Amino acid sequence: MSKITFAIGGVHPDDAKLARGCAIEVLPLPETMYVSMAQHLGAPAKPIVEVGDKVKTGQVIAEPGGFISAFVHSPASGTVKSIGPRKDLAGNPVTHIEIAVEGDEWVEGVDLSDTLVTEIPEDRAAILDKIKACGVVGLGGATFPTHVKLNPAPGSVAECLILNGAECEPYLTSDYRIMLERTKEIIVGAAIMQKVLGGCRTVIGIEENKPEAIEAMRKALTELPYSIEVLPLKKKYPQGGEKQLIQAVMHREVGSGGLPISVGAVVQNVATSLAVYEAVQKNKPLITNTLTITGNCLPVEKMHNYLFRIGMPLSYIAEYAGGVPEGAGKLISGGPMMGRAIANLDAATVKGSSSILYLTAESTRRGQESLCIRCGRCADACPMGLEPFLLRKLYFAGDVEGLEANAAQDCIECGCCLFSCPAYIPLLDHVRQAKGMAMAAIRARAAKK
Ligand code: SF4
Ligand code: SF4
């Protein structure tokens, strides 16, 4: 059993990887797709097509709206039907490009074959350009543009690239399936990023509850010419958190407000590595990802891991999988710990979509909230060393200075505090608000400088 893990806090929810045995299936194209302009961290992308334009699969349809932003490509061939606001997952209006799907005719120059390309290009700048042009963003949740993350500021040195294969959120199995089914492509993607970062130590961290993935990666590495190691990690939530992974692998702490590169680390998800492989070796833009249909009100035979095209409505995927199951009290995009409630099932999938999780009302019902008994369990569980009960108090008092002094801005919104609280206090809601207050003050100060 692996002992490698982060030092403080963490919890042990049931991993419920019920869809682990479901091989990836390719979803057929729907009649209409809706491509969001806000599917990455940073400024929204700007449409460069007009209503009535004919587009091909993989064609650029929107350009980055700023330095931290990303290109967006058409997920199918067809006609641009409209450009305008449409509700996202949370019900907020976001600009989408609506495409009437007429086929799947790709732009020229994309290698759609399964042939594995292992030779890595020499030119670092050309690799970064390709990753940028293909719209690759981090697929572990943050959707930060990958070409920016792989190009640290002058003076920063990457000492270790950590590939995140932890997939520590309960229920989710898409990373597990790609580690089994796209093993070598992920490894080549890691080797490409290793090259871009100057040849640093490269580690693939995988939780020990995925022994088949650990074995598949190790076997594939014996057949490939790269210097990359596989590190089994203890099963503990949130093992896949960026700062937690760095602590586990490098025994280094990222300081308050600091970036991983400040301690020499770059963390990329295994799905991002696959997207980097496809961009650099196949010239294929990021228009697909893998998503899990799962939950505690679905029989295993109705669970799936799907390869979806970005822009497919969630409702289309849900229908294709057999419809919303009876007894589903709550629908979540992402895992049960950090995922977001789906307020609008007609929302379009985005680059970072990872699941439709159906949970029974009973399993998500919170116990009757009572007064804090000062047991300290929330603080013991916090992997960032915060005191959630105190942050909550400071938040209700409107004490912004106190929130900053107690590092509310460092909360990673993992939900360990909520999971641990015997008084059923909605701590995650409160610490999210507290973090928002602290961040707003920090941003306002920075804007004045
Ligand atoms: S949600 Fe924030 S405060 Fe709560 S345990 Fe996670 S990091 Fe700590
Ligand atoms: S776990 Fe809940 S009851 Fe215990 S100190 Fe934290 S907020 Fe209070």
Describe it:
- The structure is a single chain.
- This protein has a six-stranded mixed sheet. A four-stranded antiparallel sheet has the order 2-8-7-4, with no helix packed on it. Strands 11-10-9-12 form a four-stranded parallel sheet, sandwiched between helices.
- Strand 13 and strand 14 form a beta hairpin.
- With 449 residues, the protein is an alpha/beta fold.
- Among the domains are: 159 residues, Rossmann fold; 72 residues, no CATH class.
- It is globular, with a radius of gyration of 22 Å.
- The protein is built from 14 helices and 17 strands.
- The site of one iron/sulfur cluster has 14 residues, from helix 13 and helix 14.
Q: Please identify the top-level CATH class of the domain at 124-282.
A: Alpha Beta
- Walk across the major sheet and give the strand order: 1-14-13-17-15-16
Q: Find the structural class using helix and strand composition.
A: alpha/beta
Q: Describe the biggest sheet?
A: 6 strands, mixed
Distance between the termini: 50 Å
Mean pLDDT: 96
Uncertain spans: none
- How is the CATH topology of the domain at 124-282 named? Rossmann fold
CATH H-level name of the domain at 124-282... which superfamily? NADH-ubiquinone oxidoreductase 51kDa subunit
The CATH architecture of the domain at 124-282 would be 3-Layer(aba) Sandwich
What is the rounded Rg?
22 Å
Strand percentage lies at 15-25%
Helical fraction equals 25-40%
